Amino acid sequence: MKTVIITGAAGNLGKVTVDKFLADGYKVIATTSQGKAGDLHKDAEIHEVDLSDEDAVDEMTSAILSRHKNIDAALFLAGGYAHGGVAETDFARLDRMMSLNFHTAFFTAQRIFQQMLTQKEGGRLVFIGARPGLDPKAAATSFAYGISKSLVFYLADILNAAARASSHGSKVSASVVVPSTIDTPQNRAAMPKANFSHWVKAEEIAETLLIICDKRTSTWRENVVKVYGQVID
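User: That's the sequence. What structure does it adopt?
Assistant: Structure tokens below.
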């Protein structure tokens, strides 16, 4: 049985992804913030933790790695969004986006990456990017969000470079999946006049994550996969 860590597991994408990987036969280790574990599948191993707290992540990953000697994949789905361009962005907003989107990914990935370097079969790290992290035009109305997500792409690049430089890291690879607007109840409420059929479904993103981690794609390296739905505005 392969083992996967999924952060942000209680979110819209997280819950679908947990179910998808469980159905495919994975042992799922799911992380959530406090009080949200009840929303998850009973077959998942659940850890409630603040992923922006470095010490808490240290404690959690130590517990996970003492119990599971091999981590085949890690999916970093935790994050958050804030609207606002350059003029509206103050330190508090920027700091919150950095904490939600970069720190939550880095603190966990740093530790799991080191474990994967020691594993015979390596491992897959998959991050969730965003269009504003790639496209400055898309970040015009979400500056802090775009800045924080841009660092996720660079983090994946640096991890891949470190893996290539390691004598044990030839089978460790970091990828980034970039969805456009995800069809969630929250997004529908925020944009009630949008054409929801143009948005990408959480199930489609979860399927993409599963494909990246599949043994049939074991030769894939350093992917940036755009899951943009039908129309890009």
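The first helix runs from residue 12 to 23.
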